[in-house]
């Protein structure tokens, strides 16, 4: 018989208080639609789409069947100097969704790898143009760009960096966009567009010809839903254009309908030079990420390389894995056939109404929300994160799955949710916040 205590010790869980978890494990055994089933049979409503990655809900037989068929026909082939049809089909499908001419797709296995890939492509692009002195990268405070060293370097969540001193040299960070005067703003806040001018200040201080790329999330997600101030993203775009800097949007969370549009760049009408994506690309069924790249970048990197040579020395063993491609194609079929991006847009108003109704609770210090993404800041007691950890466990006990970042509750329900489902989710969230 399996010794569960030993199992808990063997699996070193990510972003988890492992010792605390082993004392009272939060285990699930099944998942269908928006419901997870605990091992004791109780139901938990998924109010955060797994981890922003299952907008079409759990247990989709269409994806399972596509994966099973692919495993039976071609379970693997290397993408190094070889290929299979589904990767090209998927790249074309993604290119039909991405804005502008971001129609060249490089596949990875996660959002973290997608960011690493985008940063490398930016450096390779400038080198191919004869501007190899452009090595600086610009990120933003409170940003999350994954956990690899490149992503950690441009990321701006300090706790993620503690203990990991190795960082890319010359990285600069814009100030974050959370301002006290924007508290309890629904949608894009009015104040803060001038914060984008940090990028111009970096150009003036360090030389614009030293900066390769600026990477931001259209809406900062994992830090707790920070929508961009009105005009902010456009100003970043203008500064990048003026100074020859590539603009990268990290849309691992915002992409595939979370903003009620294909990508966040569509919602805010700002075209970046690259978009990173993952999570909802396969509805969370199989790990996969990707970078959509503008034609000028692809043409430069590929065109400047010697004939018949490898143009970009980068890739992963599981790049464009056949099974992941099958899962992604099936997911895109579901999004299209069920109109889930449009459904996300339709659910935004009732979602935000439920979200901002929590403002009356004494524990709530701020609320932010846009699209189907929102966050509630709780009053901290003792050390930051203590109340949040208690809340995490209380939410699970109350039958609702959320994401906690410090003392911030993050909500991002699946697009298949009904308005009634939202009411039940928020009722359970409220019941916890009233007694926490």
Question: Could you write a compact summary of the structure shown?
Answer:
The chain has 436 residues and is an alpha/beta fold. Helices cover 38% and strands 16% of the residues.
- Our count of domains comes out at 2
What is the radius of gyration? 22 Å
CATH architecture heading of the largest domain: 3-Layer(aba) Sandwich
Query: CATH class of the largest domain, anyone?
Result: Alpha Beta
Number of helices: 16
Give the structural class.
Answer: alpha/beta
What general form does the structure show? globular
Tally of extended strands? 15
CATH homologous superfamily identity of the largest domain: Type I PLP-dependent aspartate aminotransferase-like (Major domain)
| Terminal-residue CA separation | 38 Å
Could you list the spans in which at least 5 consecutive residues all have pLDDT below 50? none
Beta-strand content bin = 15-25%
Largest sheet geometry: 7 strands, mixed
Q: Roughly what percent helix?
A: 25-40%
Mean pLDDT, as a whole number?
96
CATH topology of the largest domain: Aspartate Aminotransferase, domain 2
* Strand arrangement in the largest pleated sheet: 4-10-9-8-7-5-6
């Amino acid at each position: 018989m399996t010794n569960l205590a030993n199992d808990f010790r063997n699996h070193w869980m990510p972003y988890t208080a492992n010792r605390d978890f082993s004392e009272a494990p939060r285990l699930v055994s099944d998942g269908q639609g928006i419901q997870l089933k605990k091992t004791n049979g109780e139901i938990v409503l998924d109010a955060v789409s797994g981890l922003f990655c299952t907008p079409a809900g759990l247990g989709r037989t269409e994806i399972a069947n596509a994966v099973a068929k692919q495993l039976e026909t071609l379970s693997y082939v290397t993408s190094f100097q070889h290929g299979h049809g589904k990767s090209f089909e998927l790249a074309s499908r993604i290119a039909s969704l991405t804005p502008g001419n971001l129609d060249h797709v490089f596949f990875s296995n996660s959002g973290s790898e997608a960011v690493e890939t985008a940063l490398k492509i930016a450096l390779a692009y400038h080198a191919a143009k004869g501007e190899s002195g452009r090595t600086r990268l610009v990120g933003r405070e409170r940003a999350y760009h994954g956990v690899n060293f490149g992503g950690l370097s441009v990321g701006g969540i300090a706790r993620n960096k503690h203990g990991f001193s190795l960082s890319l040299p010359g990285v600069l960070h814009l100030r974050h966009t959370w301002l006290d005067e924007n508290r309890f703003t629904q949608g894009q806040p009015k104040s803060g567009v001038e914060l984008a001018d940090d990028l111009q200040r970096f150009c003036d201080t360090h030389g614009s010809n030293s900066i390769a790329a600026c990477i931001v999330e259209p809406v900062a997600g994992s830090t707790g839903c920070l929508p961009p101030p009105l005009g902010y993203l456009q100003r970043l775009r203008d500064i990048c254009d003026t100074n020859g800097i590539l603009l990268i949007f990290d849309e691992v969370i915002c992409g595939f309908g979370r903003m009620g549009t294909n990508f966040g760049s569509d919602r805010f009408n700002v075209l970046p030079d690259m978009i990173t994506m993952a999570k909802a690309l396969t509805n969370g069924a199989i790990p996969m990420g990707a970078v959509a790249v503008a034609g000028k970048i692809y043409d430069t990197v590929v065109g400047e390389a010697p004939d018949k040579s490898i143009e970009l020395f980068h890739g992963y063993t599981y790049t464009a894995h056949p099974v992941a491609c099958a899962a992604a194609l099936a997911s895109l079929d579901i999004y299209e056939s069920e109109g889930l991006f449009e459904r996300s847009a339709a659910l935004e108003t009732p979602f935000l109404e439920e979200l901002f109704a929590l403002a009356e609770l004494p524990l709530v210090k701020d609320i932010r929300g846009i699209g189907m993404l929102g966050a509630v800041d709780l009053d901290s007691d003792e050390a930051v994160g203590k109340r949040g950890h208690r809340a995490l466990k209380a939410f699970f006990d109350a039958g609702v799955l959320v994401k906690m970042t410090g003392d911030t509750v993050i909500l991002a329900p699946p697009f298949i949710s009904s308005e009634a489902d939202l009411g039940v989710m928020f009722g359970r969230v409220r019941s916890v916040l009233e007694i926490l």
